[in-house]
Design a protein that fits this description.
By secondary structure, the protein is an all-alpha fold. It is 86% helix and 0% strand.
Length: 487
């Protein structure tokens, strides 16, 4: 039963990964072009602050209602009730974000102050709030596809969105529009998704607004509004500190390092998250849910440790290839990568709170972590800039993962495998740290060879240390035997 459940989870995650993975890979491939044509680090900093503004505005305006929509869509068995859950969520979020977009259009100077602290980026600010509305409305449709496990449609739509954004980005940057061009390309892709999926919802489900459903979703999601704002502080407040204390150019360099360091999160964890909650909510037996949680936490720690180690070891090569004019980003990248390794662990263990309908626990945990993170940024960023922000993040995420683990086990004991979760993280950290002592005269080829050896050492050390259980060894042996017979 566990094997079948994990296979279904892996299959759907793999399918959902296609769209986000393609989008991220294309974005990485375009990064050298973007950094050369956008007009400098300050212009890239405006784009980064656009992301910050989107993050906080979405939380304030109710994007966490999507969690309630996913939850109650899975619970309902009547198709009419499911349709009401989706359409009601659509109406609420279109209303809140649509009003915000209209306000930005009416008061562009004030919107610019929210974006970068000055009134000189009015065009960018208006576009950002347009993106907010289109993106949020589109997310309702995408969540509907996820909840209905229509992964093929999801991949097709997100792939089309990527194609539109890429084409617009290239054309508008070549036209010399800088940060405004980048933001307009995002708006074009989000509008495509929003209009297409809203039309599909209207035709298939209708556009009925149900007050009872709205109240139910709001009550479930209300505690998540606070936790969503705290999430902003965790993931985006660092840019605000760097921008306000060191300027747009500094936040541009930090943003590149953060983007590259978070690649494992944006490609793998986001794809996993698209199916994880609908999947785990659908598990009927509590013991099965416990077993799935336990094993997924272990395997997630192992997989993300490998990815994180790779990013940390090859940080300078990655930055040199993708953003050569932003060399300082290489110092930030490894620290950010390890921060998101701890974030991945937290994402799995805190699922307990959603399963037990204790979403308020998430708000308390993330709220404490956010306050801790803001304090660390206030202390470290003035003197150390982006590097201080990166260290603030990794310390915060490690503390959050530990606190979430303890609180989750107290609420609903799952029996997370502490030794098997900690082992790959610790080994990866030691191997990454050892790379800093490589001789400078190795040359590029020699350095790459040693780093590859260090990366391969992670699974070797874990196997030698007894990481695998006997049942897992037996499954691997059977799989290898089947593969040999197939050849």
């Amino acid at each position: 039963m566990l094997t079948d459940a994990l296979k279904r989870l892996a299959r759907h995650s793999a399918v959902y990964a296609v769209g986000p993975a393609l989008q991220k890979l294309v974005a990485l491939a375009l990064l050298p072009f973007v950094t050369l044509t956008i007009g400098g680090a300050a212009q890239y900093g405006v784009v980064e602050m656009g992301g910050v503004t989107l993050a906080i505005a979405a939380q304030v305006l109710g994007v966490n209602l999507l969690h309630g929509m996913t939850r109650f869509f899975a619970e309902e068995r009547d198709e009419a009730r499911r349709a009401a859950v989706v359409s009601t969520t659509l109406w609420i979020l279109f209303g809140t974000t649509g009003l915000a977009a209209l306000a930005a259009f009416a008061f562009p100077e004030q919107a610019s102050e929210l974006l970068v602290g000055t009134r000189r980026e009015t065009q960018a600010a208006v576009i950002v709030f347009g993106i907010l509305c289109a993106q949020t409305v589109g997310q309702v449709g995408l969540r509907w596809l996820q909840a209905a496990q229509r992964s093929g449609a999801y991949v097709a739509i997100t792939t089309a969105k990527t194609a539109v954004e890429v084409g617009l980005k290239i054309a508008l940057l070549l036209a010399g529009l800088g940060s405004v061009g980048v933001l307009l390309s995002v708006l074009g892709g989000e509008l495509l998704v929003a209009l297409g999926l809203t039309t599909a919802i209207a035709l298939r489900l209708g556009l009925r607004f149900d007050r009872a459903v709205a109240k139910r979703i709001a009550l479930y999601s209300l505690p998540l509004v606070g936790s969503g704002l705290f999430m902003f502080a965790l993931h985006q407040a660092d840019r605000w500190f760097v921008q306000r204390l060191h300027g747009e150019a500094a936040v541009g360099v930090y943003g590149i390092g953060h983007k590259l360091g978070a690649m494992g999160n944006t490609v793998l964890l986001e794809a996993f998250g698209l199916i994880w909650f609908p999947f785990v909510f659908a598990l009927a037996a509590e013991e099965e849910a416990r077993l799935v949680l336990r094993k997924v936490a272990t395997y997630a720690a192992l997989g993300f440790s490998f990815v994180t180690l790779g990013l940390a070891l090859f940080a300078r090569e990655v930055v040199g290839l993708l953003a050569p004019d932003f060399a300082g980003a290489a110092d930030v990248l490894p620290i950010v990568a390890f921060g998101y390794l701890f974030w991945a662990v937290f994402q799995v263990v805190h699922t307990t709170f959603y399963l037990r309908m204790r979403t308020g626990h998430v708000a308390w945990l993330v709220g404490g972590a956010a306050l801790f993170n803001v304090c660390l940024n206030a202390v470290l960023v003035p003197a150390h800039g982006g590097l201080g922000a990166a260290w603030a993040g990794v310390v915060t995420f490690a503390a959050l993962a530990l606190a979430g683990w303890i609180a989750a086990e107290r609420l609903w004991p799952v029996g997370f495998e502490a030794r098997r979760i900690a082992a790959p993280i610790l080994v990866a950290a030691v191997l990454a740290a050892s790379a800093r002592f490589l001789p400078a005269d190795l040359g590029s080829v020699g350095s790459a060879a040693v780093k590859c050896a260090l990366l391969c050492a992670l699974p070797v050390v874990l196997l030698w240390g007894g990481f695998l259980e006997q049942a897992e060894k037996d499954k691997i042996k059977r799989a290898l035997a089947g593969w040999r017979r197939a050849r």
